[in-house]
Design a protein that fits this description.
Layout: H1 3-26, H2 33-54, E1 57-66, E2 69-75, H3 78-82, H4 86-98, H5 100-105, E3 107-113, E4 117-119, H6 132-143, E5 148-154, E6 172-178, E7 187-194, E8 198-200, E9 204-214, E10 219-227, E11 230-239, E12 245-253, E13 259-267, E14 279-287, E15 291-297, H7 302-312, E16 317-322, E17 335-339, H8 346-355, E18 359-363, H9 369-375, E19 379-394, E20 414-423, E21 427-435, E22 438-450, E23 453-459, H10 463-474, H11 478-492, E24 500-503, E25 507-509, E26 515-520, E27 533-539, E28 545-549, E29 551-552, E30 557-560, E31 567-575, E32 581-589, H12 602-611, E33 617-618, H13 622-631, E34 638-647, H14 652-671
Parallel strand pairs: 2-3, 2-5, 5-6, 6-33, 8-14, 15-16, 15-17, 17-18, 18-23, 25-32
Antiparallel strand pairs: 1-34, 3-4, 7-9, 9-12, 10-11, 10-13, 13-14, 19-20, 19-21, 21-22, 22-23, 24-26, 26-30, 27-28, 27-31, 29-30, 31-32
Helix pairs in contact: 1-2, 2-14, 7-10, 10-11
């Protein structure tokens, strides 16, 4: 309470006394002992009212003891159950939660995880993916700079996400409790199979089979590729404790135009603990037509190589690099990519517009923006000679296709001349630009669709850095390729002017996220936010039929088919009001990645504990882990001063006193006949 407030309260007291004295001793015609009581009641009432009007703040200080946080994160994936570790997990968790010394020292927070982290509810050990990196990332966000200890009960076998070794924060001491039998057992498995989803008819396509061996003796095994259960190729391999990984390469003819079912199989006479990981199924669609794409450029730039590699990653597409004056018979191309256009591109761009050949314009520091303003009206460029770096940010209002799975937040900035870019009403913006954290209200990636002509605008050079950064972060190019392929797919697509557009893969692994997305456009070919979309899904083998309603997302409608049984399905999507219909087929391949393991990954969990200054324990050592945590002097309770600020107006009893005093005064005045 400030000095000014104290002075005001004192003055309020004097004012209350003065007013009451004036009423009952100066102005009053008769004076009695009752006047003294009445004056007292009025003084109290007036002072209470004045005090409430002044409303002084009252600061209350107290001291609270804050315990350090202990995070208990439990692996709820199916691999825990498959390694016969369900009972030991539940036993270890019970010992942790029932230990009074541990709960006295720590504020215990409970979580469970598979592909995502959530508050511990109930454990069923049925999660189809394990993402330990996500656990580390989420815990770092939740507890930020707080020093915490994490007991993580897991087998350490990650099936999704980036390397979890450095995903946990620097102030998080991780103590893994390793679930499962760490005794090394004989195991021979197919680690993974690399094969394109599509192959071109009458060509040959490569297949890489990665074989991993865990054992002490030298062994021989046969790796075979089967199509429709018939062997098409085989190779004999030799493995040992010093040579425990083998990459087997096959070159398979694409001789049948259809969806081909393949299996990679490894056979060995010796009996194994886990035979599920001896086989990996995959599908290859053999097609007889490619999309032809031309990259038109008059300059050399690393961006061109990155774009070319992305396009060629899809067997359905072929790419040619030509100069603006050197291209002939451009009509054979399904898509033209104009890289940093100048006046030499004028005739080609005009021909593309006239013939409604979709194109993508990519700009940069060498672009002639005055020329670009003259050949299109979607964007207006007012730029300077100053080069600026722009970071991308997703536009949540984008509706042309599903963009929720795009991961671009870690991409480095692109370069472009500084200036203002005005967007017309017919343009849809996917990426907006920002300088550091300041939005520019300008597009970085946008599209227009006018009378069946689709045009894309990618503003900024340095695209090659995005592809490289994708590899540095995830050890593959998938996130960049997925991002850029969205643009290519949209511009190559023949879905223009279709009212119902459904997007899906032809086949999925059963452990994948199986998302079917759809868009419905009204008569003006604008996204209809009130569409009623439903899907019938029929198992072609059993005839079992299920009806599923699409749910509205930010940019489209979606159906989640996670958990669906492996098999072949016919899907029919309908819009109820218009009866617009889309029909297709999908295939779900039986593949449970959680069944691939025979041992916990103790080595990796030990590395995690060392990196975070923690310690790894076997599940049989849970009592030891608890005792050492209780004795750990690096985690101590802290006494913190707690300041609570309140206001007098919040104290209701002051109003009650004032009301009571006024009421008592009135009753007494009536009793003494003063009314």
């Amino acid at each position: 309470m400030t000095l000014n407030t104290v002075i005001l309260l004192i003055l309020s007291g004097f004012a209350a006394i003065a007013l009451s004295y004036f009423q009952y001793f100066v102005k009053a015609k008769s004076k009695s002992k009752a006047n003294l009581l009445l004056a007292f009641l009025r003084s109290i009432a007036i002072f209470c009212i004045l005090a409430l009007l002044i409303n002084p703040s009252i600061v209350k200080k107290s001291y609270v003891v804050e315990k350090p946080s202990l995070i208990v994160a439990v692996d709820n994936s199916s691999s825990v159950n498959l390694l016969s570790s369900k009972a030991e997990t539940e036993n270890a968790l019970k010992k942790i939660l029932d230990n009074s010394d541990l709960s006295d020292k720590f504020d215990i927070k409970q979580y469970q995880f598979d592909k995502d982290l959530s508050v511990l509810d109930s454990l069923n050990f049925q999660g189809k993916q394990t993402n330990l990196a996500q656990v580390g990332t989420q815990l770092t966000k939740i507890y930020r700079n707080t020093a915490v200890a994490t007991l993580i009960l897991t087998d350490g076998n990650q099936t999704q996400g980036s390397d979890y070794l450095y995903a946990f924060g620097s102030k998080n001491k991780v103590l893994p409790v390793v679930l499962g039998d760490t005794t090394s057992v004989f195991d021979l498995k197919i680690e993974r199979v690399n094969a394109n989803k599509y192959a071109y008819h009458k060509n040959k396509f490569p297949v890489e089979v990665f074989v991993q061996y865990n054992g002490n003796k030298r062994i021989e095994a046969k790796v075979s590729l089967l199509r429709d259960s018939k062997v098409v190729s085989s190779q004999q391999i030799t493995l040992s404790n010093t040579k425990n990984v083998e990459i087997v390469n096959f070159l398979i003819p694409a001789d049948k135009i259809r969806r081909n079912n393949y299996s990679a199989v490894i056979r060995k006479k010796k009996k194994k603990k886990n035979s599920y990981n001896n086989t990996k199924n995959f599908l290859v669609d053999v097609i007889d037509q490619k999309s032809e794409i031309a990259i038109v450029t008059d300059i050399n730039h690393p961006d061109i190589a990155a774009i070319k590699r992305n396009i060629l990653n899809n067997a359905q597409r072929n790419v040619t690099i030509v100069s603006a004056k050197g291209i002939s018979n451009f009509e054979k191309y399904n898509l033209l990519i104009f890289y940093q256009p100048n006046a030499n591109f004028k005739e080609l761009i005009n021909l593309a517009k006239a013939g409604k050949h979709n194109f993508l314009i990519i700009t940069g520091n060498s672009t002639d923006y005055n020329f670009l303003n003259s050949v299109q009206s979607d964007l207006e460029f007012k730029v300077s000679n100053q080069i600026e770096e722009y970071l991308p940010t997703l536009n949540s209002a984008f509706t042309l296709f599903n963009s929720k799975d795009l991961k671009i937040d870690y991409f480095p900035p692109l370069q472009m001349p500084y200036g203002k870019i005005t967007v017309s009403n017919k343009v849809n913006t996917l990426l907006e630009s920002k300088i550091s954290n300041l939005p520019t209200n300008s597009p970085m990636l946008a599209y227009s669709d006018t009378d069946g002509l689709r045009v894309g605008y990618f503003l900024g050079e340095g695209i090659w850095k995005w592809r490289l950064q994708s590899f540095n972060k995830t050890k593959n190019f998938e996130e960049f390729d997925n991002f850029f392929d969205k643009t290519i797919q949209y511009l190559v697509s023949d879905n223009s002017r279709k009212s119902l557009v459904v997007t899906h893969e032809n086949f999925y692994n059963s452990s994948d996220d199986i998302i079917i997305s759809a868009q419905y456009f009204d008569k003006n070919f604008q996204p209809d936010a009130d569409a009623k979309l439903t899907m019938s899904l029929e198992d072609t083998k059993t005839g079992k039929l299920r009806l599923i309603d699409f749910l509205k997302s930010e940019s489209d409608y979606q159906v989640n088919l996670n958990g669906i049984d492996a098999g072949n399905y016919k899907l029919i999507v309908k819009e109820k009001k218009s009866n617009a219909t889309y029909t297709s087929k999908i295939e779900i391949i039986d593949f449970d990645i959680e069944k691939q393991f025979v041992n916990p990954d103790y080595k990796k969990l030990k590395q995690l504990s060392d990196a975070t200054l923690g310690k790894a324990y076997l599940s049989s050592e849970i009592n030891k882990a608890i005792d050492e945590l209780v004795k750990d002097q690096s985690f101590q309770s802290i006494e913190k001063e707690k300041t609570e600020k309140g206001f007098l107006i919040d104290w209701i009893w002051l109003l009650v006193i004032a009301t009571g005093c006024f009421s008592a005064e009135w009753l007494l005045r009536k009793y003494y006949g003063m009314l």
